[in-house]
């Protein structure tokens, strides 16, 4: 039965301002014969920020997303602004019920109330927010749809950005007002966008701007990235066509963070070598296939690598171990971690490196011995060492 619209809106207003019981609300659609609302869709969630409970308003129009947090205590005006716009549908989920309001052609409200699904009580209010807050990258970001990112890729981006967040202090505390990030072998730029959105916000909180450059040899993916960045209205997000080995995203300046997600085979080594030469303080690389060392192990009759599948797996381990040692020799503190469950990608290892200063004395000797023992025992020279021959030679000289 239709209800008087102002009464229905007053009910919705009360539900939105009852933050402890609110899970989420969405305003969407357009009332017939009315001016369109400012945004196509607005989602409202309760969030707990450092300075207390807030309502978070996420407005989307096409691929453009804007987010505004308003303290709950002062959110009446923002809620009134929202409800004052001619949305055709309002959907509110609380701890106890789901309320849908549809505005009819005559301007009345068709209200439907249903009990909340099981578990909604736990999902509502700040507890709900704690879960939502754990997401650093919005999986519903329209840009992912524009770029064609599937669920697994979105999860990989979230997991990658989570690793980036753990190293954010090392990325963001540099001198200057501009933070520089580069995504090498960016492909369809899912990570480039996800990282730029998150890091951009983190940089802004510190009064800095972020410039992120995605680099790829493929002109088509770079063109798509550029188009999507322009459509999303994202300042500071740029793309460059070219090889990783020759990339110069910031002439005369070093990137503060170098990222590479699944850059094929030795493209990961190119990314690591580039980062070392730039002297970038933070490097995050989730390698892809490892054919270089695998090829060098071919013909080795040792039982560990006699069978192709074992050789492939062992080559993965040996390659990343040697990459880690090379980076340590060249002044990075390195961890190799599982950044995402293997259900979402079999390539789920990540090299996290933070510039820490060249090793010296017994530590340097130990690292060199570990590197030499492994390469001699398996008769391999990894691509990263070939790319950084002069740098490694200098390290050997320093150890004498
Ligand atoms: C497997 S895709 C991964 C793309 C993206 N990082 C992702 O995770 O969705 C690898 C990308 O690296 C690019 N690539 C491979 N070797 C490269 C090189 N040497 N220089 C620049 N780009 C390279 C390819 O064109 C491709 O787009």
TrEMBL record:
It comes from the Bacteria. This is SAM-dependent methyltransferase. One of its GO terms (molecular function) is methyltransferase activity. Residues 152-296 form the Methyltransferase domain. It comes from Kineococcus aurantiacus. Signal peptide: none annotated. One of its GO terms (cellular component) is cytoplasm. Keywords: Methyltransferase, Transferase. The keyword Hydrolase does not apply. Residues 107-128 are annotated as: Disordered. SUPFAM superfamilies: S-adenosyl-L-methionine-dependent methyltransferases. CDD domains: AdoMet_MTases. GO terms for biological process: methylation. The keyword Metal-binding does not apply.
């Amino acid at each position: 039965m239709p209800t008087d619209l102002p009464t229905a809106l007053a009910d919705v207003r009360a539900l939105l301002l009852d933050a402890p019981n609110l899970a989420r609300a969405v305003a969407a659609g357009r009332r017939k014969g009315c001016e369109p609302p400012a945004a196509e869709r607005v989602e409202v969630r309760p969030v707990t920020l450092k300075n207390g409970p807030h309502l978070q308003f996420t407005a989307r129009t096409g691929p453009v997303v804007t987010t505004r947090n308003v303290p709950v205590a002062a959110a009446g005006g923002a809620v009134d602004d929202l409800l004052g716009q001619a949305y055709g549908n309002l959907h509110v989920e609380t701890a106890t019920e789901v309320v849908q309001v549809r505005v009819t052609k005559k301007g009345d409200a068709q209200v439907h109330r249903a009990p909340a699904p099981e578990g909604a009580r736990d999902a509502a209010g700040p507890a709900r927010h704690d879960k939502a807050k754990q997401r650093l990258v919005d999986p519903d970001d329209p840009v992912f749809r524009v770029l064609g990112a599937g669920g697994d890729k979105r999860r990989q981006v979230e997991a990658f950005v989570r690793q980036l967040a753990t190293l954010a202090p090392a990325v963001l505390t540099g001198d200057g007002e501009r933070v520089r990030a580069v995504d090498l072998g960016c492909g369809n730029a899912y990570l480039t966008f996800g990282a730029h959105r998150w890091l951009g916000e983190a940089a802004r909180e510190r009064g800095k701007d972020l410039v992120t450059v995605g680099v790829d040899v493929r002109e088509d993916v770079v063109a798509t990235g550029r188009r999507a960045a322009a459509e999303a209205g994202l300042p500071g997000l740029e793309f460059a066509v070219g090889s990783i080995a020759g990339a110069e995203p910031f002439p005369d300046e070093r990137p503060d963070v170098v990222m590479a997600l699944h850059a094929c085979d030795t493209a990961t080594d190119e990314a690591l070598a580039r980062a070392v030469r730039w002297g970038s303080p933070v490097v995050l690389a989730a390698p892809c296939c490892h054919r270089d060392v695998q090829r060098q192990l071919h013909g080795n009759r040792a039982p560990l690598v006699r069978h192709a599948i074992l050789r492939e797996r062992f080559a993965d381990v040996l390659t990343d171990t040697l990459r880690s040692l090379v980076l340590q020799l060249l002044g990075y503190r390195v961890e190799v971690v599982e950044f995402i469950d293997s259900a979402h990608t079999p390539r789920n290892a990540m090299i996290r490196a933070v510039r820490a200063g060249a090793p010296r004395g017994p530590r340097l000797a130990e690292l060199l011995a570990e590197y030499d023992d492994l390469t001699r025992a398996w008769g391999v020279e990894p691509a990263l060492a070939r790319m950084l021959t002069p740098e490694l030679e200098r390290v050997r000289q320093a150890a004498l």
